[in-house]
Specification:
The protein has about 625 residues and is an alpha/beta fold. It has 29 helices and 9 strands. Helices cover about 50% and strands about 10% of the residues. Helix 5 crosses helix 7.
Amino acid sequence: GATGALRWLSERSFILWDAESQKWQPTPLGRAAAAAHLDPDRAVAVVADVRRARRCLILETDLHLLFLCVPPDPPAAADVEEALTSGDRNDAPVASRGTNERASSRVRGGGKPVVDDECWLNRSIFVKIYGRLTDHERFVAETVGITEAYYGRLVSGSSDRTKEHRASRRICHRFLKALALHDVVCERDVHETAEAFGMSPGLLAQTQEAAARHAGQVAAVCGPMGFGDVEALVTRLQDRIAAGAKEEILGLTSIPGIGSSRARALYTAGYRTPEAILAMSAKTLAAILQPGAKGGAGAGRGVAQMILRGARRLCAEQRSAAREASEAKLRELQRLAPIAKPALGELDEAAFGFADNEEIEPLSQEKDASASPETKRARAAEAFNPASARGAVAVRLPEHLERLEAFWRAAPSYAFVLRPGTRAVTSLGTGPNASPPVAIALAFASNPEATFYARVVVGPPRRDDEGDADADADDAGPGLGPVPGPAHRGFAWETVQSILAMPGARKSTVDLKPQLRAMGAADAVVGRLDRDGGWSVGRVAPPFLDVRVAGWLLRPESAELACGVGAGWARLMDGGGSGGASEALARAFAGEIDQEATRRASAWPGLGLTNAAGAVETSRA
């Protein structure tokens, strides 16, 4: 009765009792059996199949997956009788009760066990085909359970004597069907395939249909059981089995009236999607499908019209489905809460460094509204660590500048680039005009994951906020406009000058010459009232490396890195060439530098600077 059925399902893990709801609930195995519309024993057999395959699934060929898609033969009646007479139906071969009721009823009726005719294996065909298998195919055969010992019995013509022999026969029969299906999905001629495997085209079609149906059941079982990997593979293969086609023409076989042979003809002619078919004329389509038909293209005009109607319906259905999916996704997005725009101080510190405006609460895990501004600045200073910062870090808070200065002075190796401004200081003697630096980029060998950017303040600081708030930092010094105030903080030029003049630390930069001129211009600004003429350039203490010079020495054949007036590097810095100086270096040393990291580090972020072409190219390099 019902109680016995529930007990049977519970013992075999199809259902379990939920004490909280006081109801029987299905297990994943039970949901899998229901989803696949399989009786319990067949569902157990499919799950066991998939679990074995997942331990060693061979994807070098479709053969292993095709084996899973071929429905297994029912067990031998002799094995069913043995399990029944032993008194324990649990020992019966899986699927015996569901698929071999005829044989088991004959045994229970007192008759002799039926001959093992539930699995008819063409021995000679199997031996012939098995002997021609490739190494990959033979590996699949061994994986699914075909042994050399049983193959030897088939070669010698020995009959099956044990339960294991009968099970091996069924595996061989299933594998032979999988081989036939492999030829089908590879678009081999149906009549040639049927002849090679000793079956009629009708029987081959039945095998193909049964495999496509069983593949759907296997995929349905895989979902509830959590075998999503196999589910996706089998679902796609099911379409190929049903169409008897390779992957690339499945879109065409979905059009009514187009089978694998017609799809292949259209694909070869360049028409590879339903939309492409829809754009064809009936005459062109008929000519491709029946090139040798009597009466020319007109003989197949009716078939072509039918296919075009089918393509039109299919495209309309696909577009409608896509529209519905898009609208559903839009409705889902509209139900989400709006994303608030983060304040500057809440940006991801790992990507952008730390907040540098003291009017905005610094980065901190604590949000104590009662904390004083001094406390908040102290927390921000503690959070900033040049040794562990990441990404492009714009540094403007006084506490951060102090920490970076100390880190810079102690660094044994670093790289720097000074960015000249755009407003030149008039030469006090002979020599070209130049503009003081407005910013500096720093990178340290001890922390290659970060690049630090800071303004350079040239001239006496101004302590008020009057004047043009948008003035550039190069408007500095007597006669050059307002000096940056509290909103434009940075390193004092004297600090930068003193650190670069320190011997011992290994320094590297790119195109040092214009930077030396900018340094000289800064010296002229800070000492302009005490000078009576002449011109100076900056000083960088050795040892140091100029990447421009090194590039020219290492790649003397590169015309872009050549030194000359109006050519090579000078031309690049004047805006000529392709991509500028940074791209020239990237081309010259392709594969030896991280170009993406170089581009990210060249943005001069967070300082409010207006990019000047030459300065930007220098910074990028």
